[in-house]
Amino acid sequence: MPASPETVSQAIEALKKEGYTEDFNLRQDCLECRNGRFRVFHDEFHIDKFYRFEGDSDPGDESIVYAISSEKHGLKGVLVNAYGIYSEPLTDQMLEKLR
């Protein structure tokens, strides 16, 4: 079993090799990709795995890399999201999904 990635960029690169090629952007009530062409709502995607990174000295370095798939839209991609005080305001459904 390969070692876990040590950086966000290593995680993204590894996931791209596994077919997670979309770059998802987090919105209040959905995920978007391809410049808004696709909007994927909380009940239309699954989190296949995630990697959590904690900044040693800078809380701004704390983030989670999610590997996300959507059967409905035929998409697989990556979402990078800060957590803690820097996280985005989200609907309850999106917060629950990303826990």
The helix count comes to: 2
Output the structural class.
alpha+beta
Written as H for each helix and E for each strand, in order along the chain, the element string is: HEEEEEEEH
- Bin the strand percentage: 35-45%
Q: State the separation between the terminal residues, measured CA to CA.
A: 25 Å
Average predicted confidence as pLDDT = 86
- The total count of strands amounts to 7
- Give helix % range: 10-25%
- Based on Cα principal axes, name the global outline: globular
- Gyration radius, in Å: 13 Å
| Biggest sheet descriptor | 4 strands, mixed
Number of domains: 1
Largest sheet: spatial strand order: 1-7-6-5
Low-pLDDT stretches are none
Your description of this structure?
There is one protein chain. By secondary structure, the protein is α+β, with helices and mostly antiparallel strands. The protein has one domain. It is 16% helix and 36% strand. It contains 2 helices and 7 strands, in the order H-E-E-E-E-E-E-E-H. The strands form 2 sheets. The protein has a 4-stranded mixed beta sheet, with helices on one face. It has a 3-stranded antiparallel beta sheet with strand order 2-3-4, with no helix packed on it. Strand 6 and strand 7 form a beta hairpin. The radius of gyration is 13 Å and the shape is globular. The relative contact order is 0.23. The mean pLDDT is 86.
